Amino acid sequence: MSQKREWKTIKEYQDILFEFYNGIAKITINRPRYRNAFTPTTTSEISDALYYCRECQDINVIVLTGAGDKAFCSGGDMHVKGHGGYIGTDGVPRLNVLDVQKQIRSIPKPVIAMVNGYAIGGGHVLHVVCDLTIASENAIFGQTGPRVGSFDAGFGSSYLARIVGQKKAREIWFLCRQYSAQEALEMGLVNKVVPFDSLEDEVVEWAETMMQHSPLALRMIKAGLNAELDGQAGIQELAGDATMLYYMTEEAQEGGRAFLEKRKPDWSKFPKMP
Ligand code: S0N
User: What class of enzyme is it (predicted)?
Assistant: First the structure.
């Protein structure tokens, strides 16, 4: 039996719920009528929430999910698909889910996809880019692009191939089949499959376990795992973290202090580790 939790609303949005519980932020795509398909409004709201999560000191782990028991996310909302992207309320076509994908990968905190039903098309890519995926037994995974007139040749393909291998990634994209949660587990696409009623309990337990560990260590591991795959952008993130750590040292402080005190810095007192 699932445990009842008091999730507190962090901020009100139109298309998403953004809630907090015990160090965990939960972002829920709240368009169950359309199997939680996203519009430009949905994705810009997720971006805004992720920015908040990055800045907020009280948030340690982020959970991304969909409302209801049918879908995590069914990708871009076909009702607003126009020439050049998904058309927002301003009439401009956009593919701004790409910004969300990049944010999920670069936010220096673990992101868990809590997949509670269909993760399809651009919705599948969203779970792929999360650090971890916990799925309910009724979850179904797949890409539809070549069948419905789209594709994601970015993280949705290359990172997918890193996870499931080149042959399987090509199968997923070329054949546009749907895969059960069990099949997804067997191909390493998800971390764990649990009954629907215990999905949130399991996700919260994983989050709480990670929260017992060093946030900085988790941050560096995430940056390192990304850096291997993300080229110069990945190295920039890892290097940024190295700079942050360097700024925490007395040696770095000495440089700044010496400049302000108009003297030569004295580096001699700092250890040169072998
Ligand atoms: C999810 C599916 C399998 C669920 O089937 P089920 O349970 O039988 O429900 P339905 O009766 O089909 O659906 C219920 C209602 O929900 C609507 N709906 C479902 N999905 C969407 C959707 N994606 N957009 C709009 N509406 C949706 C149905 O129409 C139905 O409404 P009513 O009751 O009025 O008929 C099944 O629904 C399904 O297969 N859905 C479509 C899944 C799909 O093909 N998704 C891909 C969409 N495209 C992308 O995601 C492209 C991504 C992309 O464009 C991209 C590429 C590269 C870089 C960026 C992007 C980007 O997105 O920005």
Answer: lyase
Q: What is the pTM of this model?
A: 0.96
Interface confidence, given as ipTM, is 0.96
- Give 3-state DSSP helix, strand, coil % of the chain, rounded to 5: 50, 20, 30
Atom of ligand 1 nearest to the CA of 95: 63
Q: Which residues are annotated as a binding site for substrate?
A: 35, 86, 118-122, 144, 150, 247, 262
Helix, strand or coil, per DSSP, at residue 243: helix
CATH number of the 6-210 domain: 3.90.226.10
The helix or strand, by DSSP H or E, that contains position 136, with its residue range, turns out to be strand 132-136
122 ligand 1 Cβ < 6 A: yes
Beta bridge partners of 94: 86
Would you list the domain boundaries of the chain?
A: 6-210, 213-259
Q: Is 120 in the pocket of ligand 1 (CB under 6 A)?
A: yes
- Phi and psi angles of residue 180, each rounded to the nearest 5 degrees, phi first: -75, 165
Helices (H) then strands (E): counts for the chain? 10, 14
**Rounded Cα gap, residues 219 and 84, in angstroms:** 35
Residue-wise pLDDT for 219-271, tens only, equals 999 999 999 999 999 999 999 999 999 999 999 999 999 999 999 999 999 99
Query: Tokens 């997949």 — which residue?
Result: 115
- pLDDT tens for 139-176 read 999 999 999 999 999 999 999 999 999 999 999 999 99
Whether 43 lines ligand 1, by a CB cut-off of 6 Å, is no
- Which CATH code for domain 213-259? 1.10.12.10
* Residue 156 three-state SS: helix
In a 13 Å sphere around the CA of 232, the CA atoms on its Cβ side amount to: 0
Q: How many CB atoms lie within 10 A of CB 1?
A: 6
